[in-house]
């Protein structure tokens, strides 16, 4: 089958954007579109231009034997600011405040459209160039972490709150969650993370940082190195968290019965 | 800014494929690309052709005031067969058999690349035209369900194994999981599902169907109607499941210490 330039461009965009950060060789495209290498190279130049002009991220060429072309999702700062401002507006609804000053967020953090954008934001602000996988803890962080893993083209690892028979032998630690001051257990299947891995930790919400600290400690048990940490929302209080260098996309400034205020974290939007 | 036809085609493909099943108006594109309606209409015809020729799904035009154009993910039967056969090959590794005849699957069912394809497969084989949301139960089904919700452009609802303080008041039921014959609880936040909703249930694995039956019962408590059910793998034994009309993409034919055999479910690949 023969393809016109227009059709090839459309096809290449679809293939690249469906698999962020995956390298496709020139030969892959020459075979798929039954076209010469020089033709495909020209197509790719046009594709690069499309992504740049529309601020959809970057398409880069990697030279050498294992070379090819890949798409790197990047969100522009205007786009990030607009998206996060809208999200804050949606969250700043007093009806979302639950007894105990908890914030009802699951409609937002389970929304496929929201999480896919958040995944691209984490991929924009966290350096994952050396990372081997994205790690989260069940349950509410999972959709965000999956979208992040997808944007970064990394496998996802999910820490369980109890060890599970269907995951084989596992390693457990105890930690104190600041939000309820209870000692809890988290555990991870031995098979699911190689020793010496470099990991990115993602979660939905950080108050004191107890859960993230627990995840970090569990990673040490696996001799894994945490090379990046991100949460969707962190609270302003307490100012001192149990962990450092965690990127948060939004700040929870205030929460009380009948009042909640979150703002985009301007420090990281660049 | 002005765009060439090539660039507009690339841009339209990116926008449509990033948001499956979402309607974009012609005006959205005329503004984005600073082009006339007639020009965009021609572009869209070419885009339709690209998707068709490359078997990437369908792009359809919706007439009327709320009209526009949308992308419907569809997987061709060759593509489905090839993908599922490769997945079975990966799964049919004796090292995956855990004590108690459990199957180690989390590397596969948490892989962003695998789940995004599985989501498109469920969107190909399950009729979701009347559905309001995708429902799953924590934890292992979540990535598959999120990818399905994304392909169907529906919100995701996650049933918890215990009720959570950060989700507000909830409704719980007890159910018997066939895999360990224990009575367990599942619960769902009242806010997260409207009465009378039509839902698609997605899970990773079905043996006796106890968990899916539980989810179905919980849906009745919400006066919700289950309009579709899908699991990645169902076992051949027991032949009689506690629920009916559940689509499974793969069949587990045999599992024993040192032996496991799964096959693509040819009945549904069409």
UniProtKB/TrEMBL annotation, chains A, B:
UniProt name for this protein: Pur operon repressor
Check the record and name the InterPro entries matching this protein.
Answer: PRTase-like (IPR029057), PRTase_dom (IPR000836), Pur/Pyrimidine_PRTase (IPR050118), PuR_N (IPR015265), PurR_Bsub (IPR010078), WH-like_DNA-bd_sf (IPR036388), WH_DNA-bd_sf (IPR036390)
Gene3D superfamilies referenced in this protein's UniProt entry, alphabetically: 3.40.50.2020, Winged helix-like DNA-binding domain superfamily/Winged helix DNA-binding domain
Q: Which SUPFAM superfamilies match?
A: PRTase-like, Winged helix' DNA-binding domain
The chain positions of domain Phosphoribosyltransferase read 109-253
Origin species: Peptoclostridium acidaminophilum DSM 3953
Q: Does the keyword DNA-binding apply?
A: yes
* Keywords noted in UniProt: DNA-binding, Transcription, Transcription regulation
Q: Mind listing the GO biological process terms from this record?
A: negative regulation of DNA-templated transcription; negative regulation of purine nucleobase metabolic process
Indicate yes or no for the key word Ribonucleoprotein. no
Top-level taxon of the source organism: Bacteria
| Residue ranges of every copy of the Bacterial purine repressor N-terminal domain listed in the record | 4-73
Q: Name one GO molecular function term.
A: DNA binding
> Which family does the record assign?
Belongs to the purine/pyrimidine phosphoribosyltransferase family. PurR subfamily.
Subunit info?
Homodimer.
């Amino acid at each position: 089958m023969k393809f016109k330039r227009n059709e090839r461009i459309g096809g290449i965009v679809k293939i690249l954007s469906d698999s962020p950060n995956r390298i496709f060789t020139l030969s892959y495209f020459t075979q798929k579109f039954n076209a010469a290498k020089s033709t495909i190279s020209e197509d790719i130049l046009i594709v690069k231009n499309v992504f740049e002009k529309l601020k959809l991220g970057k398409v880069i060429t990697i030279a050498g034997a294992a070379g090819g072309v890949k798409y790197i999702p990047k969100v522009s700062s205007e786009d990030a600011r607009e998206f996060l401002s809208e999200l804050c507006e949606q969250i700043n609804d007093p009806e979302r405040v639950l007894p105990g000053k908890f914030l009802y967020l699951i409609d937002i953090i389970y929304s496929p459209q929201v999480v896919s954008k958040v995944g691209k934001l984490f991929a924009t602000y966290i350096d994952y160039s050396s990372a081997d996988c994205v790690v989260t803890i069940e349950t509410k962080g999972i959709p965000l972490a999956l979208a992040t893993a997808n944007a970064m083209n990394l496998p996802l690892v999910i820490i369980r709150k109890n060890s599970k028979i269907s995951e084989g032998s596992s390693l457990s630690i105890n930690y104190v969650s600041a939000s309820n001051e209870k000692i809890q257990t988290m555990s991870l299947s031995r098979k699911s993370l190689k020793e010496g891995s470099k990991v990115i930790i993602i979660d939905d919400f950080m108050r004191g940082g107890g859960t993230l600290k627990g995840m970090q400690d569990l990673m040490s048990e696996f001799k894994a190195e945490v090379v990046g940490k991100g949460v969707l929302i962190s609270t302003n209080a307490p100012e001192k968290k149990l962990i450092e260098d965690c990127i948060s996309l939004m700040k929870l400034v205030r929460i009380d019965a009948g009042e909640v205020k979150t703002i985009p974290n301007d420090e990281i939007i660049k």
